[in-house]
Design a protein that fits this description.
Blueprint (H helix, E strand, L loop, with lengths): L33 E5 L5 H13 L16 H11 L3 E7 L4 E7 L5 E10 L1 H6 L16 E5 L6 H12 L16 E8 L4 E13 L4 H9 L11 H6 L15 E3 L13 E8 L3 E10 L7 E4 H42 L1
Parallel strand pairs: 1-2, 5-6
Antiparallel strand pairs: 2-3, 3-4, 4-10, 6-7, 7-9, 7-10, 8-9, 10-11
């Protein structure tokens, strides 16, 4: 008689790797995703800047994207389509300066920025007395704020549209306050024609509550009262942590719903921004129609030359008008002298 083996059945294990959604369930819009990579050899400090930019673009980016020397732009483009990647952030280094290209896949346009100055996230954290960067901070995408781009020039309009679409859009009526953890600020200076890139963490603090009481409520830990005579000393002597934490009426808001144990809808809360880096100063050098190719829509060099030509033309026209006025005055004086002689 044949013997039957008792085969052990492998249990069904549900995969823990959750696939990121490609469409926002609230707005119905396609969620933008990005690749941050480099072209050419980068020094170690720019490699760290590349990793910082990947953290800025979280969670809809490839944090551990691996690159090889033989990879070209078409390799990334072929992978971008099936994965729903909509934007490329490409870092490169020349003898003059580092550059960053922001491209829309698959057909462009492409914006090329010169990185005049930059600071890593680690540098920003070392300069702060109490750096703050919790792990849950990067589970939601940042908010985008653009300032100073409303001059009406075409290349600035393209820059505004590009950065607005590189992050997911939000619906003010349905957005949850718990998802608003970070903010990316881009400020354009029309005098210097430079763009300041800043990355902040958003904090809410209840107004009128000292730092020691706030920490006690948040951490659920019994405070150390050994050196105090009474519990009232713990409350009355608990001042603010620093002068920067003082209440500012311009930063006070009324929350529509309760956020946590400390920030309640019934009380006012103060909005605090703490920089987490990286920090960059960018200069728009070129705008191309295609993906790192195609016709040039804007060039900083031709724009500067055109501006200088217009200034010189205005100066020459002004000089000609002054010469004509002087000639007219001399003719009038000669006519008056002739009339007096007669």
């Amino acid at each position: 008689m044949a013997r039957f083996r008792n085969k052990k059945r492998m249990p069904f294990v549900k995969s823990t790797n959750r696939k990121q959604p490609s469409v926002d369930h609230v707005t119905g819009d396609k969620i933008p995703k990005s690749f941050v990579f480099s072209r050419g050899k980068l020094p170690g400090i720019l490699r760290q800047l590349q990793m910082d930019l990947r953290k800025v673009m979280l969670p809809f980016t490839a944090l551990n994207l691996k690159e090889k020397k033989r990879n070209n732009l078409n390799d990334f483009l072929n992978v971008a389509g099936p994965m729903g990647v909509t934007h490329f952030l490409i870092l490169s280094k020349t003898e003059a300066a580092p550059y960053m290209r922001v491209s829309r896949t698959p057909q462009g346009p492409t914006l090329t920025f010169k990185i005049n100055e930059y600071s890593l996230a680690s540098d920003v954290a070392q300069s702060q007395l109490r750096p703050r960067c919790p792990k849950d901070l990067f589970k939601t995408p940042p908010l985008i704020v653009l300032s100073g781009f409303g001059t009406g020039e075409q290349h600035l309009k393209l820059t505004t549209i590009m950065f607005q679409n590189i992050f997911p859009a939000i619906d003010v009526n349905t957005v949850k306050l718990s998802t608003c953890q970070r903010i990316v600020l881009l400020n354009y200076n029309k005098d210097t024609k430079l763009i300041d890139f800043r990355h902040y963490a958003i904090r809410l603090q209840p107004v009128g509550v000292s730092r020691r009481i706030r920490k006690f409520v948040q951490n659920h830990k019994v405070p150390d009262l050994r050196n105090l005579q009474d519990v009232s000393d713990f409350v009355t002597k608990a001042g603010y942590g620093s002068e920067s934490e003082a209440d500012d009426e311009a930063a006070m808001v009324n929350l529509p719903t309760d956020l946590d144990r400390v920030n309640r809808a019934s009380n006012k809360s103060a909005v605090r921004l703490q920089e987490i880096g990286p920090r960059m100063t960018l200069q728009l050098m070129k705008v191309e129609e295609g993906l790192c190719s195609g016709g040039v829509i804007y060039s900083a060099f031709s724009h500067e030359n055109q501006t200088k030509e217009n200034e010189q033309k205005n100066i020459s026209d002004h000089d000609e008008e002054e010469d004509e006025d002087e000639d007219g005055e001399e003719d009038d004086e000669n006519e008056d002298e002739d009339g007096e002689e007669d």
